[in-house]
Write a structure and sequence with these properties.
Layout (H helix, E strand, L loop, with lengths): L1 H6 L6 H23 L17 H5 L3 H8 L8 H16 L6 H26 L7 H9 L13 H7 L17 H10 L10 E3 L5 E3 L3
Antiparallel strand pairs: 1-2
Helix pairs in contact: 5-6
Length: about 210
């Protein structure tokens, strides 16, 4: 697992390459123990006494390829596949299986209008003022102005200040869960550990949480 996560990093230097090689070496050093314990099984739960898996042989070339061509994640099709789901599959599912192209275009157009309307109303409710430099000077010179000035330079800063109805790119509406903290509570036997017991930390960089 360490190998898989490290190899998918967006920034990989020579130190990270050494960690990837070390993780792969750790697997090869201990893979015989998995065979001895009967942990490798095939169809109908039949024990397999070898590691004749082409993909494992391929893992040997990951680090040399990273050194020659850069990080492997740049060649991933996940981004385009996700976009295909959002702009093709989901709108098609919302249609009536007739005239796909115009219905998909209409769906995307309406979703875009809802997105911009939500953004505009959220900014207005947050009382954020957008103006050019000349208007800003007149606003600051007003003696009745008692508001506190706040300069927003990036989109991420803006998204933190608004409360949109629909989640937007870069927003932090989702709640992040620290599974490493949960696993540590379980390891310590804390009464505050969440139940059912479904979280486990296998190494410094990897934590598992089973949904069911």
């Amino acid at each position: 697992m360490d190998f898989q996560y490290l190899a998918q990093s967006r920034i990989i230097d020579e130190a990270e390459c050494s960690k990837i090689l070390s993780a792969l070496k750790g697997f090869h050093d201990h893979k015989d123990a998995i065979i001895a314990a009967g942990g490798r099984r095939g169809k109908k739960n039949v024990i397999i006494n070898n590691w004749h898996i082409p993909k494992i042989e391929f893992l040997q070339s990951v680090v040399p390829n990273i050194r020659l061509n850069g990080v492997a994640i740049q060649w991933s099709a996940d981004t385009t596949e996700h976009a295909h789901i959002e702009v093709m599959k989901d709108p098609a599912d919302a249609a009536n299986n007739q005239r796909y192209e115009p219905q998909i275009c209409c769906h995307l157009d309406r979703m875009d209008k809802l997105h911009w309307f939500d953004l505009a109303t959220s900014i207005r409710e947050a009382e954020i003022k957008f103006c050019d430099p000349s208007e800003e000077l007149e606003y600051e010179s007003d003696p009745n102005n008692k508001t506190t000035e706040l300069t927003i330079n990036t989109t991420s800063e803006l998204l933190k200040l608004i409360n949109s109805v629909t989640p937007m790119a870069g927003s932090t509406t989702g709640r992040l869960v620290n599974y490493f903290y949960r696993a540590n509570l379980l390891k310590q036997g804390s009464i505050n550990a969440p139940t059912p017991l479904r979280t486990h930390q296998s190494s410094k960089n990897v934590a598992f949480h089973l949904s069911r």
